[in-house]
Write a structure and sequence with these properties.
98 residues, alpha+beta, four-stranded antiparallel sheet, globular
């Protein structure tokens, strides 16, 4: 896990740049789209994005509706999609910041 955190945050100064590093690694490595559940309903995770306050979110679709869910609140399917280890590394990094 430490190696992933170091890879995402190398050359990043400050928490905002480090969060962007994780966003980039998740965007580049997470296999999309994938199916999961949000509040008991099946959704398709189509993309990831970053909010103005540096939070990484998943763009989820159900039918013609889309919703942004914080990626750390997203339930991953079993087995998880390729690249999900970057979400785990992001979670670990966030916990270590506080």
């Amino acid at each position: 896990m430490r190696a992933l955190i170091e890879e995402a945050t190398v050359d990043a100064y400050g928490e905002s740049e480090q969060a962007v590093g994780f966003y980039t690694m998740i965007e580049d490595n997470l296999k999309l789209p994938f199916q999961t559940e949000v509040l008991g309903m099946e959704v398709t995770v189509e993309a990831v994005d970053m909010t103005d306050d540096d939070q990484i979110v998943a763009i989820c679709r159900r039918g013609n509706k889309r919703q942004r869910i914080p990626i750390l609140d997203l339930t991953l399917p079993a087995p998880p999609p390729r690249g999900a280890e970057w979400i785990a590394a992001y979670r670990t990094w966030l916990r270590g910041r506080y």
